[in-house]
Design brief:
Layout: H1 15-37, E1 39-41, E2 47-49, E3 66-67, E4 77-79, H2 84-93, E5 101-109, E6 122-131, H3 139-163, E7 176-179, H4 180-186, H5 192-203, E8 205-209, E9 229-241, E10 246-256, H6 259-268, H7 278-284, E11 291-297, H8 298-306, H9 321-329
Parallel strand pairs: 1-5, 7-8
Antiparallel strand pairs: 2-4, 3-4, 5-6, 6-11, 8-9, 9-10, 10-11
């Protein structure tokens, strides 16, 4: 169990007030986010058939919760890790046009997660996806989209300040762009996590780009599934988070793979067997649109805006009793 306890922590809001703030943030953010990115809200599945290849494999070592259904024979059904692949197919299935997109409430179970202040076995995020043209698969499209998302998050800071002035956590005014290789060059003797903390403390907020491929050191900054993000055109939105004296990831996103980048990444990940799955065949024959998309953590955003010390303060989940007791003893009230 890894747990950070801020000194003299004051949650500012009662549990009841926190619940009211959670509802306000979630409802207000998704409305503004959808409007700014031209996204429509869709319903989405909690589970998919394993054979479709639609589930997110994350780093390839996490095992999804799976089961069988009475009327589905012996088919293995998996609770989603995310909707990264499902969304792209949905854009085609529902007939979305160029520069239109969708967002949805994604609820997942990641049972192999290491629990700490930020991480829960229950994941709740806005998964989103938007149709782009092939010639828009570039860094400029990525950075423009990131700036729009940052603008919406900053807008939310002001909205929360108006409704809950004593609780709002103030954010930097600008987001900076840096690649994982540039970051390794800056801090060659640090671990990836230490590098993220160092750059976020220095700049306030960064979009850390190009996550997946090995760096010049021969090591990867972090793992990424090889079959949805293009590792040259993806990244994470990271804020410096003073309450815990470390960075916090709010979003992972990117321009999605085309046939060439997917084949190269699957080869690198020793996962070329996936090329026979229905989803991957659609990428190979370009029968689904080119897209950009990602996920924005709902509980993480509430944490960030309210200055909370633990994701369990803004999310009802399960925690080890030792963590519950230590949090309660330090004025951290888990839902």
């Amino acid at each position: 169990m890894h747990l950070i306890i801020p000194k003299d922590y004051d949650p500012k809001l009662s549990v009841k007030e926190t619940q009211q703030a959670i509802r306000y943030i979630r409802e207000t953010f998704q409305e503004e986010f959808g409007k700014q990115l031209n996204l429509s809200r869709l319903s989405a599945p909690m589970f998919v058939e394993k054979k479709t290849g639609l589930n997110d494999n994350l780093n390839g070592i996490e095992k999804p919760v799976s089961f069988t259904m009475q009327d589905m024979g012996d088919e293995t059904i998996e609770i989603v890790h995310s909707l990264a692949k499902w969304k792209r197919v949905a854009l085609k299935r529902y007939g979305f046009d160029m520069h239109e997109g969708l967002y949805t409430n994604m609820n997942a179970i990641r049972k192999d997660e290491d629990l700490d202040n930020y991480h829960s076995a229950y994941v709740d995020q806005w998964d989103w996806e938007k149709v782009i043209a092939k010639d828009e698969r570039n860094v400029q499209t990525l950075e423009d989209t990131v700036k729009t998302i940052f603008k919406v998050i900053k807008h939310m800071e002001h909205e929360v300040w108006y409704k809950f002035p004593k609780a709002v956590h103030h954010l930097p005014d600008e987001i900076h762009f840096i690649t994982t290789q540039e970051l390794e060059d800056m801090y060659p003797d640090m671990t990836p996590r230490e590098r993220e903390n160092a750059i976020c403390k220095k700049l306030g907020c960064v979009f850390l780009m190009q996550i997946g491929w090995k760096l010049n050191s021969g090591k990867r900054h972090d793992g990424r599934a090889p079959d949805y993000d293009d590792w040259k055109l993806n990244g994470d939105i990271l804020f410096w988070y003073e309450p815990l004296n470390q960075s916090i990831e709010i979003s992972s996103m990117g321009i999605r793979v085309d046939a060439d980048s997917m084949k190269a990444q699957l080869k690198d990940a020793d996962a070329e067997d996936r090329l026979s799955l229905p989803y991957h065949k659609m990428i190979l024959d370009a029968s689904v649109p080119y897209t950009i998309g990602g996920g924005i953590g709902q509980s993480r955003l509430c944490m960030l805006l309210l200055g909370k010390a633990h994701v369990g303060e803004v999310q009802a989940a399960l925690w080890p009793q030792a963590m519950i007791d230590k949090c309660e003893a330090n004025n951290i009230h888990l839902l």
